[in-house]
Design goal:
The protein is 70% helix and 0% strand. It is mainly alpha-helical.
């Protein structure tokens, strides 16, 4: 007795075979697509967190620089620099521009 190899034969026309094939491919590939989507989402979230940290760092630096500007522009500092340069401060010669 010879053993014959049995092949899986799908009954039906080519359209039905194509539908079966697409269904199998969809079932097999959907977990991989879900993993890829979650990995991409995780990467984007990581980049967003990095951007937030950079923004916070820049805001702190801006606050520090603004405080330094206010310190350098203070009246006491201007008077001390004026005295060092030999200038005098009189309120009559100061004009306020708005």
């Amino acid at each position: 007795m010879k053993k014959t190899k049995k092949r899986l034969r799908l009954k039906g026309n080519n359209f039905q075979k194509m539908i079966y094939l697409l269904t199998i491919l969809t079932v097999v590939s959907s977990p991989f697509m879900m993993i890829y989507a979650k990995a991409t989402l995780s990467k984007v979230n990581y980049e967003v967190e990095e951007a937030k940290e950079k923004i916070i760092k820049e805001e702190k630096e801006n606050e520090s620089l603004q405080m330094k500007i206010n310190e350098l522009a203070s009246l006491e500092n201007l008077e001390s620099i004026a005295k060092e340069k030999g200038l005098s401060y009189t309120s009559d010669s100061v004009k306020t521009v708005k």
